[in-house]
Task: inverse folding
């Protein structure tokens, strides 16, 4: 029998439990910086050295983080289902836990790319991209991260995956950042949808979704047990 398709959308909440700070706190700052200063293409053009250093620090933190019980539980689903992880996170914790099909919507911290040609992507050697590190066309290397003001190249692949899902699991995201927040709308009518987050928004659009207002490390392993047995 063909395995059912599970698509898992993950956001900052799942990585937060591994010690990676969430994207922004209540006052809109990210690690003390205005988000648009360090996570927009305009910010890069204005202060590239600041943005570079900001992501160098994020990379160092991500390199020492360890996958948690939620990441490992999602990897276990592959024993019985066709599983695709679509993540807004730029760390590699899903890879570390053993998931094999991961789409990084917002890029990856372990990669650098040319600032003039998006096709030129390189692994980051060590934990830093330095000002003065150049691509083969002679332009400054930047983090391979999708910033505000930039297109999301992987969104079409993500839409295609969600459109063919039998089960959709949304973990650790407030469903506020688009286009990722709109992905659930592409799920087919027969798709069973689950939402796991510590704070579920009171939204009428969630009425056909089974919600678990708990941390990822508690709710994901429980749901995985339910789906496997």
Result:
């Amino acid at each position: 029998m063909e395995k059912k398709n599970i698509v898992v959308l993950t956001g900052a909440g799942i990585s937060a439990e591994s010690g990676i700070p969430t994207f922004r706190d209540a006052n809109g700052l990210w690690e003390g910086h205005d988000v648009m200063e360090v996570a927009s293409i305009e910010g890069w053009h204005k202060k590239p050295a600041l943005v570079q250093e900001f992501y160098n620090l994020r990379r160092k933190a991500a390199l020492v983080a360890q996958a948690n019980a939620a990441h490992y539980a999602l990897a276990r689903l592959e024993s019985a289902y066709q599983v695709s992880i679509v993540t807004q996170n730029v760390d590699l914790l899903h890879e570390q836990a053993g998931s094999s099909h991961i789409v990084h919507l917002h890029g990856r911290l372990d990669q650098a790319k040319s600032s003039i040609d998006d096709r030129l992507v390189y692994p980051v050697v060590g934990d830093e991209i330095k000002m003065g590190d150049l691509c083969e066309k002679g332009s400054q290397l930047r983090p391979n991260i999708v910033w505000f003001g930039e297109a999301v190249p992987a969104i079409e692949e993500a839409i295609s995956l969600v459109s063919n899902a039998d089960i959709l699991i949304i973990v650790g995201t407030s469903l506020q950042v688009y286009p990722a927040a709109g992905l659930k709308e592409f799920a087919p009518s027969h798709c069973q949808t689950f939402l796991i987050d510590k704070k579920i928004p009171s939204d009428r659009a969630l009425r056909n979704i089974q919600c678990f207002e708990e941390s990822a490390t508690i709710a994901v392993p429980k749901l995985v047990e339910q789906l496997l047995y």
Observations:
- The domain at 21-64+110-145 is CATH 3.30.1600.10 (SIR2/SIRT2 'Small Domain').
- The helical segments are 12-16, 35-38, 41-46, 48-64, 69-76, 93-97, 155-163, 216-228.
- The first helix runs from residue 12 to 16.
